[in-house]
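Question thread 4412

I'm putting together a teaching handout and wanted feedback from people who do this every day. The idea is simple: show students a protein as raw sequence, then show them the structure tokens that encode its fold, then repeat with a second protein so they can compare. Below is the first pair exactly as I plan to print it.
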Amino acid sequence: MTDAQFQQPAAESRILLASAAPSGGGGGGTHKASVTPWITAGGVADELHQDMSTALGDLGHAHDGIKAGTAGFASVAALSTILGTWETRLGAVRSECQRLSGDLKKAGVSFGENEAAVKTSFEAVRNSSKIDDYSKGR
């Protein structure tokens, strides 16, 4: 088949990968990934976990003794209910931050290990490839 006989597919039937797009999408070769953002995010989540633990303690201390001397006031019952809901919410946030901290750090370590393995495998192929020998006529 000659080039003249070959018909180009209609534009709407072509599939382009985002990474191969000339502009307006991926493919610019500027995407750089690293372990650092994952580890940093894990550290931030760990800090938030610690901050939520402190906040829960502070919230509890702020309500210490509120019932003494205020018996019979409707606001005391309302404050007790609100305290319970805030403790539940902050406890859930604290638990999620703890989970995220571990998961993000683990993702960073896995990413780094995978990146090193891929680099090593490409270097092995590059070092054993005969393509350069063929292109130089050896």
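The second pair follows. I'd like the answer to focus on this one:
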Amino acid sequence: MVCCGPEQAKLIKDAKDLNGILWLRTPTMPRKMPLYAEDGRETVIAPDRQLVVNSAPMIRAVLAEDEGFAIFPEFSVRDALADKTLCNPLPEFGTATVTAYAFFTERRTERTNARAFVDALVKGLVQGA
């Protein structure tokens, strides 16, 4: 979902408005991002101003200061949306669905940290559904 600070949200009326705003993105995100509306429309955003930041907490801190926008999974910003630190200015738009797989080798003991990660991921995704 698209996230930004409350004041920045007032400037965003349509997905195309994002092209004129600073995009805070991670290194793994592409320079262009398709957003999909609930009615099936696709809008590709490619803002001229992009800042690559390898820290989700840093991105959230900048957004809380009403600078730019970012794209986060809903479950990771649920608390900030609830307390109105962040806003979703385009609730009708989202990103493509991503499928995740976890493979475990057949050992007598599975790695507890890998299992804990998968369990936490599933819990977050189920709560976000």
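Top answer:
Good format. For the second protein you could add a caption like this: The beta strands are 2-4, 23-25, 33-37, 42-45, 50-52, 69-71, 93-94. The CA atoms of residues 3 and 38 lie 17 Å apart.
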